[in-house]
Design a protein that fits this description.
Layout lengths: L2 H18 L14 E5 L4 E4 L15 H15 L7 E5 L5 H15 L4 E5 L8 H9 L4 E6 L10 H11 L8 E7 L7 H10 L3 H13 L3 E5 L4 H14 L6 H15 L4 H15 L4
Parallel strand pairs: 1-4, 3-6, 3-7, 4-5, 5-6
Antiparallel strand pairs: 1-2
Helix pairs in contact: 2-3, 6-7, 8-10, 9-10
Length: about 280
């Protein structure tokens, strides 16, 4: 093959390789937004222009949890020691809403003080790569994982344990980890019982599983709300968006909604208000 024949062939090969190779992902600086989602394949921080959250003043029935998490987050923003936090308890009780609202409240006090970075549960094994990227980013970050839990044959919790406290590098001083879960110990009961029944030393096997929760210095429990608190949440939402409905009708409809759902929680209250606002032709 002579040179004139070889050049077009090499050009076609180069073009084919360029099509196969993914384009380089531009690095997004942490000051580009106040919130990001960690995406993999390829690794990148994707800015979130508008966070789906509610104002912290609308979160009712969790006053102690709210003040504790706010104080912890405020200390972290000030460069003081703060704890990783596990928010656990009943579904729909405001765990993830509180994390996002606390981040917004601190940034309202100190604009740009904190970045919120969400990592999905299935991406926990990539956590060391994310922390390496955040370590020298020059901005304090609250790393957030919603609905964190582990099932049988899931070894991802070992990566999380090492990152939180036990690894050689450990957690960067500029990163705080907040997680929500329906389980206090992040493991299903049958998973823990299976470890106890099959291990040579049951106590040590269970201790390894349960010790993951111990890596969180702050535990905040959330529980189902009572009737007065549920109504207080509904009325707070109705006032926030000026819904044109009388108090008696509002309470009657909210109670009927909760009965049909079989539960009372902040999530149920929000779903009712969305339905009510839609029927009244109001935007929320």
């Amino acid at each position: 093959m002579n040179e004139s024949e070889m050049i077009p062939l090499l050009r076609r090969i180069a073009e084919a390789l360029e099509r196969l190779a993914p384009p380089a992902v531009a690095e997004v600086p942490l000051d580009a937004a106040d919130a990001f989602v960690w995406q993999t394949d390829p690794d990148r921080l994707e800015p979130v222009p508008r966070v789906n959250r509610v104002d912290i003043g609308l979160l009712k029935g969790i006053d102690r949890q709210r003040e504790t998490l706010l104080d912890n987050t405020r200390r972290f923003a000030d460069g003081l020691p703060a704890n990783n936090a596990l928010l656990w308890g009943a579904r729909g009780t405001g765990k993830s809403s509180l994390v996002k609202a606390a981040h917004a409240a601190i940034n309202a006090e100190r604009p740009g003080a904190l970045a919120l970075v969400e990592i999905h549960r299935e991406d926990i094994p990539t956590l060391p790569r994310l922390l390496h990227r955040l370590r020298d980013a020059g901005r304090r970050c609250v790393l957030f994982c919603d609905d964190l839990s582990f099932d049988s044959n899931d070894d991802a919790y070992k990566s999380l344990k090492a990152v939180l406290e036990g690894g050689v590098e450990g957690r960067p001083e500029t990163v705080l980890f907040y997680a929500t879960s329906n389980r206090r110990h992040l493991m299903a009961r049958d998973m823990i019982e299976n470890e106890r029944s099959t291990a040579i030393n049951p106590g040590e096997a269970v201790e390894e599983k349960v010790s993951l929760s111990d890596r969180f210095g702050l535990w905040l429990g959330f529980h189902n709300v009572d009737q007065p608190t549920y109504m207080e949440i509904v009325e707070g939402y109705a006032r926030q968006w000026n819904l044109p409905i009388g108090p008696e009708a509002l309470r009657a409809e909210a109670n009927e909604w909760a009965v049909t759902r079989g539960s009372r929680s902040g999530r149920v209250a929000w779903q009712f208000v969305q339905d009510l606002a839609g029927r009244l032709g109001k935007r929320v």
